[in-house]
Amino acid sequence: MFDVRDKPKMVQRAYLVGVVEQKETEADAVSLLDELEELVTTLEIGVVGQQRVRLRQTQARYLLGSGKMESIVEAAKALNADCLVIDAELSPAQQRNWESASGLCVIDRQEVILDIFSMRARTKEAVLQVELARSEHSLPRLKNAWTHLSRQRGGGGVTQRGEGEAQIELDGRMVRQRIAKLKKELELVVRHRETQRKQRQKVPVPTAAIVGYTNAGKSTLLNALTGANVLSEDKLFATLDPTTRQLKLPNGQKLLLTDTVGFVRRLPHQLVDAFKATLEEAVLADFLIHIVDVSNPEFESHMATTHEVLQELGADEKRTITVFNKIDRCVEIPIRHDAEDQTKSVSISAVTGEGLDKLMEECEQQLLDRLTTMQLVIPFSRYDLISQLHDQGHVKEEQMEDDGVHLVANIPARLRTVYEPHRKCE
Hints:
Strand content: 15-25%
CATH topology of the largest domain: Rossmann fold
Helix content: 25-40%
Shape: elongated
Strand order of the largest sheet: 6-7-5-8-9-10
CATH superfamily of the largest domain: P-loop containing nucleotide triphosphate hydrolases
Number of helices: 13
Oligomer: single chain
Structural class: alpha/beta
Number of strands: 13
Distance between the termini: 91 Å
Low-confidence stretches: 1-9, 145-155, 161-168, 337-342
Largest sheet: 6 strands, mixed
């Protein structure tokens, strides 16, 4: 019979350990530890204490020296912590050593982010991507005394491991079989996405991807520009699934905007790899809208992180509009412009709407090479061409004459040859 005492004990009290590398400044260390606290809090786990430790030399057994490890465990137990969160990437052996020595649940930053992604995933693609990332991360950790591979998404993650949890007897072969199955399922979903993308490409509508650090305001911007109803919360990774909506620019040009998953410092490589299918929207877009929370004192390092991830995806050379968001929260906008930086920038508030008109003007500028203004005379027998213009271009003037319909229109470059025979002779 099932005994309620066998139910896994929930992790509730975390002690955070910031590992400061030699190249990092004290300010960087404080910022990363504050961000880790926000990540842990997102999982609804209380933080009872924290400390920073400068890493002078990497130790194979615990990453840190054994003396420092013992003092950390002592401090955590004094505060009745049931979990240690190390802000560094622990090897499977190091994680086992920490847990064996402390008797506590020990996780690193990567596992915290994996748990948040697991909690936030909604669509089938996101669920598969997260489970694949979790399985690949967990494969070398099967011998860990704390296990979590048996639970499905929604049943909890590594931060719900506890001493009452039964040891799961899964060997590497079973996990590898699961990974192979997940990859096949994900291939089908990706193939479906590619089919949808090809259908969109049949209609020559340009695309832009909104990228940026997590919680910078990507979903809020998408909602403000397109009237979409995408979940927008003041939380890390509030949305994982890409959402595409159509925007009509002031000149009549249509633009497809896609909201992508947010980035974060020290993002697990498994997640970058797993979400490449989702982030392909950024790679394939005509241009990027890089949104930055300029009210955050760390916004410059957030920008650097976004550039690093885009570089890893091969999208760092894309034409980009840098959007400094949340200016309504700033007394003074602390933006430094580099004379050699040719990137366009706009300051906005996605909440109040300030600056959105300038942003749309910049979007128009990005698409100028895609539009040609033409004066046309379309015969009455070719109303299909007029309909196509209204749907895919922008009709500025339209007048009925005896010889047909006279128009002045902005025409997408790829349709120019279709309308060239109907150009009005001067």
